[in-house]
Amino acid sequence: MGKKAKDKSQHLPKDMKNKLAIFPVDAKPRYMLFFLAVVVQLVASALSGIGYSVHGAAYWMVGLVFWLVWFFLMFLIIRPQTDNLLQRWGGALKRGAVIIFISLLFLGVAEAVLLGFFTSRFLDDGINNGADEVIAQLYGGYRYNDGTALCQQAAENLLSGKEPYANANIVTAFSKYNGTYDRLTPLQIGRFADAFPYPSMDQLEAVWNEALENPSQPPPEIESRVCYPAGSFLLIAPFIAMGIKDVRVIYAIFIVAALIYTIWKIPAKRRIIFIAVAVISLELWNTLACGETGIIIFPLLLIAWITLGENNWLSALFMGLAVATKQTAWFFLPFYFILSWRISGFKSAAMWAGIILAIFFIINGYFIGKAPEEWLRSVMAPMIEPMFPLGVGAISLITSGLVDVEMALPFAIAEVVVLIGAALWYWRYSKKYPDIGPVLAILPLFFAWRSLWTYFYYIALIVLARMLIRDDGEALTVNRK
After folding, report:
1. Distance between alpha carbon 243 and the CA centroid of its chain, in Å?
2. CA distances (Å), 327 to each of 396, 426, 442, 463, in order?
């Protein structure tokens, strides 16, 4: 009986087999590699996170290797020739993608149930069995970090008539939003001057407990500025005014809206691929649950990139919003300009660049004019403040203790050199490999003094969306005007 059923299944009509398949029969092998890229990124983040928690050099280094593998996969994916290379393994890649999808979907649901139901109950029981501290640290990771708290405080200050940048105070913000000291950004001054490569949790706790005794004066060892352009709090201010008090809900509105728009733009037969990758992108949803400020520019960059060349006004609007909200988006500008030049010619590209610049100043102009020094010191704080090295890129060599370098300058130089080199390479090859732009944009950040994982987690979705919308694998047609 079993043999007959098997034989019968092998002779199903082709249309029936197509209906039973999760992904389109003609889906390119490259698309299936995005599922592998999601897994590699998750493993890389997990290993780097463990290295940070236990101060284990081996974890840092293996995590660094996985991040390099992720970059290699992204470069492999954008090459049309990869489809020919992987054509004979197309069926195996689809089966692997299905297995990854089901596995990560189950893992995501299990994580949500664990953190949303069992974790709080476990901590409330007060059982001291050695696991409570670990679980408490994990659970605390889903609270506001300092950037999120300061952005919400800035929005509320704005709504109440106070100047957002001048009235930033991390102590009062964290006290109000229930932040924890391990989510602060320490500065390498004062009591932390010799705490290289990073202060211990005991040191952070001691400074924080002292700060709570005098909330009006944040300690100099803790970053207390709104370190982002004004879009970071202006975009969320209307929602807060409507009564939404958790910025994660606001971020979720932006993300869901952008994903829905993107899905609508992708041809129907290929939508399931994007939906599947988006659903299992646990880094995206974990970042949303953490309330990381970087999440706000993902939907802006996504729409800006997928509409470039089709609806340039809309694309420029969202790119303008992105660069007016978070400095990370600034790294996308050279590659965005190059691609728009390739698509529409120099005059049109210059016009879109002017629109982006205008949007930036429309959003930030009032605050620049009112308190230029305060705005500049706040927005430039990530570049000029003595922050500790942190991240998942080349800086892992420092944070792991394998290399003894206590100056940020070599990394800043490397960052600039890589940015210039990547832009020059894209200028030469963007017609042949247009989809690599977002990957090249974040490549310099891999060499930064602070190479946070949140800089990289959403890039694959942006690249995948544009590839699925274009789906031609051909070089761009240059239309110079």
Report:
1. 27
2. 22, 21, 12, 20
